[in-house]
């Protein structure tokens, strides 16, 4: 589990769209929340005891409250279902400090936000910040229908209305063409930010990287891509390797069916974890030496190439030893 958790009280609940509910929270101790950068997410422990990650979608300029939204998933293992069924106004929840793997890039000359369904949540906090700074941006929001689109009343008002483009009922066969239209004529050096279903984001990445003027495509995941997991599982057997602690010189063997987190715990070194799927980034640590085998779903391409960080809950090692700064 992640350290630095604290109790919050649910101040209000709102049904934002079909199956999507927002929760406005305040700290039980009456203190303001710490500031966070747009795109951040928090761990939320539901009454069922299951902890999941949810994007903060309120204006990051306000510290009196925070807001996150949850889509009720039919195959929920107790996270979204419990938050929808077991939480009412006045209930207390345990949450973690904001973490951010999905930041606005200061180098961008323009920002293009592209979300689908519940994927609007991190983009909404970005839109608040960009609007406040007067930076050029457009927000493309895809949903099955108007009834499935969250936060429409907010998006229809200032300061967002002139920046928002809505796309309802776009089928898979028409998605690529629609995305090309969305990105046609983007400013040179524009950055694209996307969140939504894995297949949707994959198409945004494919189209975005092929679009002249787009400098980089950023994406946020909250679940491991089943296809990627299956491909990894069907690969070579997980070999054993050693992990050395740079500060102490301790060495521990990581077994074939053991994670780095588990191996380190066996020698008394606790690494904060949350999702256990390489999605949330809680267990990221610095790599001093060695070549990681990245099996996560949260590091950027640049971070993977650099081999300077590793997600300890799922990733392994290509070299006989990894030296970690923990």
From TrEMBL:
<dbReference type="Pfam" id="PF00111">
    <property type="entry name" value="Fer2"/>
</dbReference>
<dbReference type="InterPro" id="IPR001041">
    <property type="entry name" value="2Fe-2S_ferredoxin-type"/>
</dbReference>
<dbReference type="InterPro" id="IPR012675">
    <property type="entry name" value="Beta-grasp_dom_sf"/>
</dbReference>
<keyword id="KW-0808">Transferase</keyword>
<keyword id="KW-0489">Methyltransferase</keyword>
<protein>
    <submittedName>
        <fullName>Vanillate O-demethylase ferredoxin subunit</fullName>
        <ecNumber>1.14.13.82</ecNumber>
    </submittedName>
</protein>
<dbReference type="InterPro" id="IPR006058">
    <property type="entry name" value="2Fe2S_fd_BS"/>
</dbReference>
<dbReference type="GO" id="GO:0008168">
    <property type="term" value="F:methyltransferase activity"/>
</dbReference>
<keyword id="KW-0408">Iron</keyword>
<dbReference type="InterPro" id="IPR036010">
    <property type="entry name" value="2Fe-2S_ferredoxin-like_sf"/>
</dbReference>
<keyword id="KW-0285">Flavoprotein</keyword>
<keyword id="KW-0479">Metal-binding</keyword>
<dbReference type="InterPro" id="IPR039261">
    <property type="entry name" value="FNR_nucleotide-bd"/>
</dbReference>
<keyword id="KW-0560">Oxidoreductase</keyword>
<dbReference type="GO" id="GO:0051537">
    <property type="term" value="F:2 iron, 2 sulfur cluster binding"/>
</dbReference>
<dbReference type="InterPro" id="IPR054582">
    <property type="entry name" value="DmmA-like_N"/>
</dbReference>
<dbReference type="InterPro" id="IPR017927">
    <property type="entry name" value="FAD-bd_FR_type"/>
</dbReference>
<dbReference type="InterPro" id="IPR017938">
    <property type="entry name" value="Riboflavin_synthase-like_b-brl"/>
</dbReference>
<dbReference type="Pfam" id="PF22290">
    <property type="entry name" value="DmmA-like_N"/>
</dbReference>
<dbReference type="GO" id="GO:0046872">
    <property type="term" value="F:metal ion binding"/>
</dbReference>
<keyword id="KW-0001">2Fe-2S</keyword>
<feature type="domain" description="FAD-binding FR-type">
    <location>
        <begin position="3"/>
        <end position="105"/>
    </location>
</feature>
<keyword id="KW-0288">FMN</keyword>
<keyword id="KW-0411">Iron-sulfur</keyword>
<dbReference type="InterPro" id="IPR050415">
    <property type="entry name" value="MRET"/>
</dbReference>
<dbReference type="GO" id="GO:0018489">
    <property type="term" value="F:vanillate monooxygenase activity"/>
</dbReference>
<feature type="domain" description="2Fe-2S ferredoxin-type">
    <location>
        <begin position="241"/>
        <end position="326"/>
    </location>
</feature>
<dbReference type="GO" id="GO:0032259">
    <property type="term" value="P:methylation"/>
</dbReference>
């Amino acid at each position: 589990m992640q350290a630095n958790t604290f109790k919050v009280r649910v101040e209000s609940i709102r049904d934002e769209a079909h199956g999507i509910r927002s929760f406005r929270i305040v700290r039980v101790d009456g203190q303001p929340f710490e500031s966070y950068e747009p795109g951040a997410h928090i761990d939320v422990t539901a009454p069922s005891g299951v902890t999941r990650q949810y994007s903060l979608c309120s204006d990051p300029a306000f510290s009196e409250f925070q807001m996150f939204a949850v889509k009720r998933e039919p195959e929920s293992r107790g996270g979204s279902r419990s938050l929808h069924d077991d939480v009412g106004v006045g209930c207390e929840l345990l949450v973690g400090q904001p973490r951010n793997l999905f930041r606005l890039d200061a180098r961008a000359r323009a920002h293009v936000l592209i979300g689908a369904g519940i994927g609007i949540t991190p983009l909404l906090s970005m839109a608040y910040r960009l609007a406040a700074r007067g930076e050029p941006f457009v927000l493309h929001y895809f949903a099955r229908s108007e009834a499935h689109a969250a936060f429409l009343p907010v998006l229809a008002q200032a300061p967002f209305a002139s920046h928002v483009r809505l796309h309802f009922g776009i089928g898979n066969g028409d998605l690529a063409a629609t995305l090309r239209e969305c990105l046609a004529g983007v400013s040179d050096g524009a950055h694209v930010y996307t969140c939504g279903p894995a297949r949707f984001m994959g198409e945004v990445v494919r189209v975005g990287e092929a679009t002249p003027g787009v400098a980089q495509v950023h994406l946020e995941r909250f679940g491991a891509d089943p296809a990627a997991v299956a491909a990894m599982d069907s690969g070579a057997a997980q070999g054993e390797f050693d992990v050395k602690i740079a500060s102490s010189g301790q060495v521990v063997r990581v077994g074939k069916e053991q994670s780095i987190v588990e191996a380190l715990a066996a020698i008394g070194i606790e690494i904060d974890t949350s999702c256990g799927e390489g999605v949330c980034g809680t267990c990221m640590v610095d790599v001093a030496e060695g070549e990681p085998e990245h099996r996560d779903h949260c590091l950027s391409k640049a971070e993977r190439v650099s081999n300077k960080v590793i997600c300890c809950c799922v990733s392994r090692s290509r070299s006989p030893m990894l030296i970690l700064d923990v």
